Amino acid sequence: MSDLPASVRPPLELWIGVECTLNRVGETFLDQLVVNGHAERPGDLDLLAGLGARRIRYPVLWEQVAPESPDSLDWRWTDERLGRLRELDLTPIATLLHHGSGPHYTSLLDPEFPEKLAAYARQVAERYPWLRAYTPVNEPLTTARFSGLYGVWYPHHTSDASFVRALLNECRGTVLAMRAIREVQPDAELVQTDDLGKAHATPAMQAEADFQNERRWLAYDLLCGRVDEEHALWGYLLASGVTPEDLHWFRANPCPPDVIGVDYYVTSERFLDERRERYREHHRNATHADIEAVRIYHNTSGIEALLRETWERYRRPVAITEAHLDSTREEQLRWFETFWRAAERVRSQGADIRAVTSWAILGSFDWNRLHTGFHGHYEPGAFDVRSTTPRPTALAGLLCSRATGGAPHHPTLGSPGFWERPDRFHYSPLGTAPQGAVLGCTARPLLILGAGELGQAVVRLCQERGLAYRLLPPSALEVSGQGGALDLLRAERPWAVVNAAGYGHIDEAERHHHQFWQTHAVGLTAWARACAARGVELLTYSSDQVFAGEGQAPYEEHDRPSPINAYGRAKLEAERQVLAAHPGALIIRSSALFGSGTSEDPLVNTLRRLSAGGTVSLDQDHRFSPTYLPDLVHTSLDLLIDGEQGVWHLVNRGESTWAELAGTLAEAAGLPRHRVRPVPGRELGWVAPRPRYSALRSHRAQLLPSLEDALGRYLAGPAGSLSGWLDRSVS
Prior knowledge:
By secondary structure, this protein is of the alpha/beta class. The chain folds into 2 domains: about 5-425, TIM Barrel (Alpha-Beta Barrel), CATH 3.20.20.80; about 445-730, Rossmann fold. Helix 5 (about 115-125) runs parallel beside helix 7 (about 160-185), helix 12 (about 300-315) packs parallel to helix 13 and helix 16 packs across helix 18 (about 515-535).
């Protein structure tokens, strides 16, 4: 296949993969399949098959099948799942270890680890003789680094000797496992994966970068029988405690991958700098700074160059076996498209690139903490598992297009990803800046209505996310009927309209109820009709004020609204009219907001007064769901990009009164809580009545993190939000 010209090779394939890490930290085995729910949802496989992928990287994990004894195996789960994949004609690549060190009766440093793994591999092959592709050990070099060199995973060693021994055990285990498998299934393929990045450096650190750039190939080199006395790392390996005989064994028993799997993340390329003082503490180690190259260096390689390097070094079929980004939805789309187009270009130059794998297809949990514990940080993939049934995101639609030979056309793809934009740098950039103009934006814009606190937040986060936008003033809602809105849509050519006007103006709506109704119910309905006529998506914000507040449990989307103030009545009528005019519209109900990063932020003003020695009187009667403005806007935009429709409740999990919330924050900020004076709402001069209880939750999916989590990020936010305003108040 490698020698066939590109014109007659099969087309580039879509593969997918389930994040299935089952690793050990101390005496605890951390199982991603349990946390993401896939362990209990066999129906996921039908959803995944609907994407049209040819292969799926799928777990047949040693720790799961034989956790207590090599002689006691429970095949029930794998029987069910592999059987269903076979029925669905979705070919599995069976993974036996995924960042694991094996069950508790072995480890990566166990001298018998290779033979134990091979014995398990034979049992898998005998039970499933139809399996044709295996990854006995996922990312052996990466796993050996994390377990033997960095001490992150079991057995938590931090030496070159342990790293090298773990890597040799993994690679020897892979050779023996494939030998055992092929005695049952002679045509079985080895799909060998590893994280393939690249180190860049200042001149003073170039020797270390050169070493790391040789080390990244080591697992592949061992399996291909390329490590001999002439190898660049021969001396390092011997100095780390292995013998020439250990290394000669791989020369005598080569097991070259049938497909070299390249895993690549935005953090895979690193920049090394001896000037530690230039960087934040978390980027420093004992001798130098080590930072994601994309945040400091112009001259990163990127996936395209690394694919070429891999092909030129081995001349064996290559696949991208993990493409995933923990980011906003449009950045996930741009990231995958970057990989697909890179693979196509390298194929067109003669390389045998087989596939691009959308990794973490069901998302993943807590990789931001290197999978050392589960704390609730979730990264969606093509499906979001926070719904009762995994919900397809916009990425799922893109994958379906690529699987069937089509080209995706999502409007956000017309803008560059953050890794290509000049605002990506956390520090003054090093290296050679690209010549010519910065990558342009050809995307159709979002049209944003309303320049208030919510509208400004939408603008700010569009800028941060690289989403093209055009901000119109609130008066745009007062255009003369549908014709005026249509004229603006023709002129601006947006792909979506976001209405953020008038949010939270409860007393204003009570004072000027007729005008508010005309603008925010009648005017918005005209925009909805115009959007429907032009095929433009619409996102608008509604409120917890549509409920009467007589209950004691949080309101869900299906609960009956019964507003008690003019604001709630106008919002409810707008919901009804918008959905009648534009059934595909997205309506977000939320609650009172904090975290705007401006002087209008109610909590900033409260805490500034407390820090100046004052006392603040706040409502103690009305319970609601305080919502962190960046969380609301980010998730709203994600849902809009996903093409979601209808009414969604988006709030941070939890409820409070204003007095309770300010008291909690005062304590966290080191300010006296007793200066927060809880009072009845009637003493605050409100014009409009408020529901006494208006907390929200969603039966569709609880997408926002907890209120506690949001408050922690609010307090620790960058200068310009809470901390910045407090600093200015006491300077």
